[in-house]
Amino acid sequence: MTLGIVFVSRTLGRLHQTDYLRGGGVSATGVGMLRVQKVKVDEIYVPTARKKTLHPETVRHLAEDILENGMKTPIQVRHDGKRHILVEGLHRLEAAKWLGETEIEAYLVQAKRH
């Protein structure tokens, strides 16, 4: 059996981020792969509590890296029936907005509310 999702932890400044990388096959839990989809950045709701964790300097550094290397890891959103809600990837979302992107790659996940 192949593991479908690989969890990679990395440290970006003071932030600790877990990235979910795509692999082949089915995950150990038997759940299929997460599918990447394009989502309009202006249609993603960011919860107020999450907005408070934003570090503008991190956004700037990340935007520079995205310009040089592209977006490496899609953000994660959930859909509540009306809109997409950010689950993970605030700094990547804000960097994409800062760069003038109108869409961003995202994993649609099933997640509990924060």
Automatic annotation (TrEMBL):
Q: Which InterPro entries match?
A: ParB/Sulfiredoxin_sf, ParB_N
Alphabetical list of SMART domains matching this protein: ParB
What domain of life does the UniProt record list for this protein's source?
Bacteria
Q: Which Pfam family name is an example for this entry? A: ParB_N
Residue limits of the ParB-like N-terminal domain?
Answer: 37-113
Q: Which Gene3D superfamilies match?
A: 3.90.1530.30
Protein name, per record: ParB-like nuclease family protein
From the broadest rank down, the organism's phylogenetic lineage runs: Bacteria, Pseudomonadati, Pseudomonadota, Alphaproteobacteria, Hyphomicrobiales
